[in-house]
Amino acid sequence: MTKRLLVIDDEDSVREIIQISLESVAGWDILTASSGSEGIEIAESEHPDAILLDVMMPDMDGPTTFKQLQESVATCDIPTIMVTAKAQTTEQQQLRNLGVAGVITKPCLPQDLVDEICKILNWNQVTQL
């Protein structure tokens, strides 16, 4: 069965690159949202298999969005991976301490992104030909 992921990122180009990468490399269905509040609405209605959540966003940042996802019965069981441009170990540890499934540093090559997601979520690797 095809995995469905929700990508929440305020940057159009980043969302597009991640969407194309995951669809072409892994064959997953990708939903996208440009803000935390839009992402929460989509997560509640579509219930994706996992969420990729940007840390730095205006209005509602990644940690705040994650907290709201955790507080909702409809979305609290969806594994969430934080995506950040900050490579510092201390900052990544602070994100992990929130209870996210994992942290991925961007930029990331398409195949590496798929590998990281599969590793974090313990999914079998899928390779599209």
From TrEMBL:
<feature type="modified residue" description="4-aspartylphosphate">
    <location>
        <position position="54"/>
    </location>
</feature>
<feature type="domain" description="Response regulatory">
    <location>
        <begin position="4"/>
        <end position="121"/>
    </location>
</feature>
<dbReference type="Pfam" id="PF00072">
    <property type="entry name" value="Response_reg"/>
</dbReference>
<dbReference type="InterPro" id="IPR011006">
    <property type="entry name" value="CheY-like_superfamily"/>
</dbReference>
<keyword id="KW-0597">Phosphoprotein</keyword>
<protein>
    <submittedName>
        <fullName>Response regulator</fullName>
    </submittedName>
</protein>
<dbReference type="InterPro" id="IPR001789">
    <property type="entry name" value="Sig_transdc_resp-reg_receiver"/>
</dbReference>
<dbReference type="InterPro" id="IPR050595">
    <property type="entry name" value="Bact_response_regulator"/>
</dbReference>
<dbReference type="GO" id="GO:0000160">
    <property type="term" value="P:phosphorelay signal transduction system"/>
</dbReference>
